Structure formats: C-alpha cells, structure tokens
C-alpha cells in the first residue's frame, strides 16, 4: 500500500470511529480525497438509531441542526487529528449531509495557495462552460458570484469555491442570529437549481450527489459534486 493510500485509510478509520463514538453508529464506508489544499471525506450508510426515529417523524430539521452543532464542537479535534495523521494544516472546515441517501461530506481547506491551473481537467470537458452553468444556477439562488473557481479532484469529485455570494437579506438574517436557519433553507433550494442546470450534459457523466456549505463571515461557499466515474450519460 502506498503512503498516500495509507494516510487515506487512516483518516477514514479515524472518521468512522469519531462518528461512531459521538453518534452511536459509524458509516458503512468512507472515501477520502486529498489534493492540496483540499481534503474531501465522503461517507455512506450513516444514520444513527435515534436519528432514524426522528426521521420517521419527519423531524429532519432537528437531525440536521443536531449534526451541525456536534460537528462544530468536534472541528478542533478533527483539525488536530488531520494535522497529526496527514500533516494537513486545516484552516477551514465544512460539512453537509444527504439524509435520504444516508451520506455525508466533510471538507477541509488548508492555508496552501492554490490555482485552478494546478488541477488538470479531462480534455473532453469544457471547464469554462461548466463554470458558467454553475454561476448561472447560483445567481438564481443568491446572486452571481464575485468569483468562482472549480477544481477537478478526481474522477468522482469536483469542488467549487464561490466568493461574494450573499445578498442583503441574507446578511441581515445572519447578523440577527439566523445563520443555521438560512443554511437549512439555502441547501435544498440551491441543490435543486444546480440539478436543474443539468451539469452532466457538460461533464458527460451523471451527478450522484451535491453537497453545499458556507462560511457566512467570509462570504464564501463551497459546492462538491459527486460523480459516477467514467459512465457516459445516455442521450
């Protein structure tokens, strides 16, 4: 096993144990992608027994709020463990969940400077057209991003960083303490608009999931597309 695979495996094991210890059940699988300055941790089969009871009662907002609160409490421990395991100095940390599919995603961002030119996109994909499609979808949900960068991490993971995206009413809600409620509203809306934009027409492969999170203080948003690798979309 290569050193990179060993590190990914160790991180996956750490995240599984962390979730099991704090939620009462760990995920069935964890997939770790490291491409500086980003680390993306995608896991499947993750719904705790108590959460399953709440979801049957349609209390999904309570489940999401509880998860976000707990992850916020665990952020510093996760950052320190990533520093120890992978020598990653994570500065920003994000999380999102797909309760229907019982999946989740964690994103870590280090201080290392990055350029889109450092990430090679497949020759058969028009990155500019993809970025334009994402910016247009985002404009419907909030406003046209002041800047948008997209990064091809691997055949199943695309990460998008947007900046200068918040409108006045959103900033007002955040300043009044409604940031968590705003996230609960923005996620399904923006996810729906991104799916309606049909990015798979440009990507040439199906989008399995879309995860989103924001740093409202810095006016930054992240989107991660999880793809079906190398499977062409039917015409």
Question: What brief labels describe this structure?
Answer:
235 residues, 7 helices, globular
Helix and strand layout, with pairings?
Blueprint: H1 3-23, E1 29-35, E2 38-44, H2 49-56, H3 60-86, E3 90-98, E4 103-110, H4 127-141, E5 147-154, E6 157-163, H5 168-175, H6 179-196, H7 200-203, E7 207-215, E8 220-227
Antiparallel strand pairs: 1-2, 2-4, 3-4, 5-6, 6-8, 7-8
Description:
With 235 residues, the protein is α+β, with helices and mostly antiparallel strands. Helices cover 43% and strands 27% of the residues. It has 7 helices and 8 strands. It has helices spanning 3-23, 49-56, 60-86, 127-141, 168-175, 179-196, 200-203; strands at 29-35, 38-44, 90-98, 103-110, 147-154, 157-163, 207-215, 220-227. The protein has a 4-stranded antiparallel beta sheet, with helices on one face.
What general form does the structure show? globular
Based on helices, strands and strand pairing, what is the structural class? alpha+beta
- Indicate the percent of residues in helices: 40-55%
Strand order of the largest sheet: 1-2-4-3
Q: How far is the first residue's CA from the last residue's CA? A: 39 Å
Using DSSP, what is the number of strands?
8
Q: Count every helix, treating DSSP H or I runs of 4 or more residues as helices.
A: 7
Alpha carbon gyration radius: 17 Å
Percent of sequence in beta strands: 25-35%
The average pLDDT is: 91
Largest beta sheet, briefly? 4 strands, antiparallel
> Which ranges are low-confidence, i.e. pLDDT below 50, for 5 or more consecutive residues?
none
| SSE string, helices as H and strands as E | HEEHHEEHEEHHHEE
